[in-house]
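Progress note, sequence design subtask.
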């Protein structure tokens, strides 16, 4: 009996020893994990997690970012962010959003060293939401390195630098991923509360606030791949911000530097959405067939315009412009501006219930 009890004690001691050994291994591995982030799974396969910060990337861009303020009679009217994107000759050029500088008669920028300068407004375009500022190159601290939005992939790490809310939070860094590309977002331009324009933008979940407008969004190498300009604000929506692809922004910015304004073609029509309320259509004396569910409804035709010369009439519903399907007035304007002055474009429209094709010769103003 004594021998049997002794054997039981030996077995229990062995089991306890194994358990303590296992706990010791787990604890030891966990402790080491704080340093090496190496864990052992059930198959005893070593997995190493290399989670690196983006501080080096932020350093590459930080001093190129400026806080932008628009003033009218020394009273600030709006503020946002911008960044130095190129140097040419004795001048350096800063990109920001057009809505950041509109409404004022003076623009000032502040650099990370605390210096504030009044700058020249080279030009702005409300549809592109891009504005360009110029300053003497000896006053800047750094020029941003530009990357490519086209080469980014969904899930890539992105970060923004901006001035959310007010100057107290200037040069705040936020981090996220690229959530979507080529998003077509309908927006209102100028003081319009109605969506009358479409922007093709990048989508990110990096935190974007109002003061971030005009600032850079960059990849993990610190290269700017877009210009932040808006976010969705709605109950049930969180983490949906947008940025103008850097290729588009630079194209517009360089046009503003060269020409001071961007020349776009006109069609010469005022339009409504098919989905607009019937009273609005009634206001223009328009009655649509119930079979028509989408498109841009011609509310009026400007005399001497390309549309007038092509034979458009009030009540026509434009459904295709060139190779692009048209579902709304905003989409019509967006696709119209993909063409140049002088282009000839085939247009499909419905008059009554009959689909018709015509060709418009675009110009920049009515004759």
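Output:
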């Amino acid at each position: 009996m004594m021998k049997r009890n002794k054997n039981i004690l030996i077995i229990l001691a062995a089991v306890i020893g194994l358990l303590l050994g296992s706990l010791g291994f787990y604890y030891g591995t966990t402790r080491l994990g704080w340093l090496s982030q190496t864990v052992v799974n059930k198959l005893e396969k070593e997995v190493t997690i290399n989670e690196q910060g983006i501080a080096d990337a932020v350093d590459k861009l930080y001093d190129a970012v400026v806080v932008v303020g628009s003033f009218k009679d020394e009273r600030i009217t709006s503020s946002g962010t911008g960044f130095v994107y190129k140097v040419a000759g004795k001048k350096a050029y800063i990109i920001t959003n057009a809505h950041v500088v509109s409404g004022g008669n003076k623009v000032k920028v502040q650099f990370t060293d605390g210096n504030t300068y009044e700058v020249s407004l080279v030009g702005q375009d409300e549809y592109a939401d891009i504005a360009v500022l110029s300053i003497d190159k000896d006053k800047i601290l750094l020029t941003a390195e530009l990357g490519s939005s086209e080469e980014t992939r969904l899930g890539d790490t992105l970060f923004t630098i901006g001035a959310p809310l007010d100057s107290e939070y200037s040069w705040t860094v936020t981090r996220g991923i690229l959530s979507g590309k080529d998003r077509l977002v309908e927006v209102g331009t100028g003081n319009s509360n109605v969506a009358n324009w479409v922007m093709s933008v990048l989508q990110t979940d990096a935190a974007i606030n109002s003061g971030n407008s005009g600032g850079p969004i960059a990849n993990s190498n610190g290269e700017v791949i877009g210009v932040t300009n808006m976010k969705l604000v709605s109950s049930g929506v969180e983490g949906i911000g947008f940025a103008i692809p850097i290729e588009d922004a630079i194209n517009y910015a360089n046009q503003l530097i060269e020409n001071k304004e961007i020349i776009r073609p006109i069609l010469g029509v005022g339009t409504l959405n098919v989905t607009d309320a019937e009273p609005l259509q009634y206001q223009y004396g328009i009655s649509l067939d119930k079979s028509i569910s989408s498109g841009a409804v011609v509310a009026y035709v400007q005399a001497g315009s390309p549309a007038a010369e092509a034979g458009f009439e009030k009540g026509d519903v434009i459904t295709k412009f060139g190779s692009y399907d048209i579902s709304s007035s905003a989409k019509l304007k967006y696709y119209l501006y993909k063409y140049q002055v002088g282009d000839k474009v085939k247009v499909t429209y419905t008059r009554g219930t009959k689909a018709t094709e015509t060709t418009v010769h675009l110009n920049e103003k009515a004759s």
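Residues 112 and 208 are 20 Å apart (CA to CA). Work on this subtask will continue into the next period as scheduled.
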